[in-house]
Amino acid sequence: MINVNEVIETNEMIEKENLDVRTITLGISLLDCITSDLNKLCDNIYNKIYETAKDLVRTGDQISREYGIPIVNKRISITPIALVGGAACKEPSDFVKIAKTLDKVAKAVGVNFIGGYSALVSKGMTDADRLLIESIPEALASTDVVCSSVNVGSTKTGINMDAVRLMGTIVKKTAEATKEKDSLGCAKLVVFCNAPDDNPFMAGAFHGVTEADKIINVGVSGPGVVKTALEKVRGENFEVLCETIKKTAFKVTRVGQLVAQEASKRLGVPFGIIDLSLAPTPAIGDSVADILHEIGVEHAGAPGTTAALALLNDQVKKGGVMASSYVGGLSGAFIPVSEDQGMINAVEAGALTLEKLEAMTCVCSVGLDMIAVPGDTKDTTIAGIIADEMAIGMINQKTTAVRLIPVIGKGVGETVEFGGLLGYAPIMPVNQFSCDNFVNRGGRIPAPVHSFKN
């Protein structure tokens, strides 16, 4: 049982240290909407989502007022649309029509984002998968709150390099399609390896086919809380440091557990998981990079950074698991560049490069996230970066992801402003040597030997 006193003691965290419930995400299965009639399918999707989610925002606001806990976003995740639209969609524009339906219903119920314009192609692509992937640039250019993800690899199946090569092109086309908004469409597109079925965070959320008809997943975030706690043990040894992070993560997770249970009860929707992820924002004091600085590195990217991040990620998970029986999603530390002022400062100081970020993704909770690169970066180079990150996830049996933003018309030394939670980012240099012959081979990279555990 949750003791309200456990939550009351976090008031100072909320008021002074940027603790928040980052999102209540309502997962909705659309499998019962499937039909071969596209217009009927769109109607079914709209009606199912509207009826299921119409009270989500009001309920979240009500819980926030009653408990004094900021709930920043209310979101929806849905069954991957490549599965839902396969029978009705014969060309990419048919999928775009579904995307517009999703955008319309999301706005009607008042959520911030809807995720699940997705395809799962870690071993191969169906015709529907390919059509959806080809539709992504237009879909993200013609909608405002739709988020897209494509899972191209897993520890069990290997890496679908045909899909990786295609996604290099799709990321570049999405950048071109939204160039009037500084290629913002790419901020709503994630390429995954080992994507979880229950992730409440955008842009990668979708409602997996292993889930119930509807589910409540809650994402909690508190980088500022962890940093403040570590300030009080500055100079202490690693044992004290680890204990402090675990205890803080425990308290933060309990806040999310309370919100999740209340939302579940009031909406009549089963509770799924708590995702305890230190997800930064552009706000001063709400930075994962600042935690790494407090642990002892001058800037994110300095020697010792990967070890510090590994320690942080592990202790966050340990504290979260003790606080809730259902910790899932991505749970750990996010290291986006544009959404974290400390990371931006590290890039501008010359301490943090794309290659060091890749090394850090071996031990963070996701991967290369919200990284702006020159707009003239080749699509094969983007595919090569995706392949590298997918390999890290496949070999290490962890979720990895890539959210690169090639900002059309801008180059190294310039910055791009996205606004809101997405913040701003310096354009980072990319290795100019070619990987064309590698990514153009086609086929599949096999699963590693340690995947065979049956």
Short description:
By secondary structure, the protein is an alpha/beta fold. It has helices at 4-8, 11-16, 38-53, 56-67, 81-84, 92-109, 127-141, 161-177, 223-231, 238-267, 288-295, 305-323, 341-348, 354-360, 379-396, 436-439, and strands at residues 20-28, 71-78, 113-120, 146-154, 158-160, 189-193, 214-221, 271-278, 332-333, 368-374, 400-407, 415-417, 424-426, 444-445.
What is the element layout, followed by pairings?
Elements: H1 4-8, H2 11-16, E1 20-28, H3 38-53, H4 56-67, E2 71-78, H5 81-84, H6 92-109, E3 113-120, H7 127-141, E4 146-154, E5 158-160, H8 161-177, E6 189-193, E7 214-221, H9 223-231, H10 238-267, E8 271-278, H11 288-295, H12 305-323, E9 332-333, H13 341-348, H14 354-360, E10 368-374, H15 379-396, E11 400-407, E12 415-417, E13 424-426, H16 436-439, E14 444-445
Parallel strand pairs: 1-2, 2-3, 3-4, 4-6, 7-8, 8-9, 10-11
Antiparallel strand pairs: 1-7, 4-5, 5-14, 6-11, 12-13
